[in-house]
Amino acid sequence: MNAAPDSTATETADAFAERLFGSVLGWIDLMSVYMGDKLGWYRSLADDGPATADELAARTRTSPRYAREWLEQQAVTGILSVEDAEGDAATRRFSLPPAHAEVLLDEVSLAYFGPLPRMLASLGMQLPAFLEAYRTGGGVSWKQFGAEMREGQAAANRPWFAELSRVFADIPAIETALQKPGARVADVGMGGGWSSIALAQAYPGLTVEGFDVDEPSIELARRNAEEAGVADRVTFRNADGGGLEEYGPFDAAFAFECIHDMPQPVPVLEAMRRGVREDGPVIVMDEAVAEDYTAPGDEIERLMYGYSLFCCLPDGMSHQPSVGTGTVMRPDTLRRYAQEAGFSDIEILPIEDFAFFRFYSLVR
User: For residue 6, what is the DSSP state?
Assistant: First the structure.
């Protein structure tokens, strides 16, 4: 005789299945956003106004049939608005609400979300490489992720880097260093260069030296600096953080969201300590993960473990030997790295609600 089904287990299974179904819908939304971004459909709706499928296709030189399917899906999922939804498919006009346009298209808005689908699409292309790395202990490098990831990461952080001067104004040690006449600072792992550019724009007397090991990122940063009009005070070099001693001494050094990616972070932190004047701040901005591991975790923990699984840990493991930090670098881990690099401790700075980031001052 079979036992009666466990109703609690059934309810739990149903709830978990419902959660995964929601994730499927989320994936569809993100990938459809990726398509609309890459094909210029959102931009056309924002700049040229509402359109039928034929009009949008003509504007963007794309297929009318695919445009119609995408427009209908976008309205069904609530991203676009549609007039005469029950009328003839050929005459339905679709529009992009202003609030949604800000999230999808405004590159300087703190609500800008456009780069995230591009980044996730880039990661999806590497799934076979991830499987191989997970089997062998190898890695998947930043170079393999390609331009979508490189440019998406830079674009995602750009609006927040524009806020650096606002939050640094409340930290006397940083503000004093940046306002010092003739000040020179190092920006380690600067990627697309928006952190260096933001500092140079906010502090007209400041010179910034950016360091990175990814040549395409350096080229991107140089273009960005030229377009921003600060190339005369911002220099980017192909060197890891260990090379900054050669160009010092600096009045301050920053490492924005990069220490957890480094295969060997301790020598870089040691070089930052040696390359900065004795009274100069050494600042690390990294992910604001929980101080201790708990499971289940909140949405930020889930997000950071996701980044770690599919980006930061494989990238860090692609260069051996590697400490394999991953995205979820908790304060105690950074404290250990800092102490091994010759610092006495770390201090968490009182900067809150700054995206998903936490700021640390490394104490000599």
Answer: -
Dihedral sign for Cα 12, 31, 121, 326, please: negative
pLDDT of residue 28: 98
What domains are there in the chain, each with its CATH number?
7-105 (1.10.10.10), 124-363 (3.40.50.150)
Closest C-alpha among 254, 206, 258 to residue 230: 206
For 8-26, give the DSSP string: HHHHHHHHHHHHHHHHHHH
Answer yes or no: is pLDDT of 161 > 60: yes
- Encoded tokens for 338: 């800092």
What tokens does 214 get?
Answer: 């990814």
Residue 332 and residue 293: Cα distance in Å, rounded? 11
Neighbours of 205 (CB within 10 A): 12
pLDDT tens readout for residues 222-238: 999 999 999 999 999 99
pTM listed for this prediction:
0.93
Query: What does the pLDDT read at residue 219?
Result: 96
Residue closest to 161 by CA, chosen among 361, 359, 362: 359
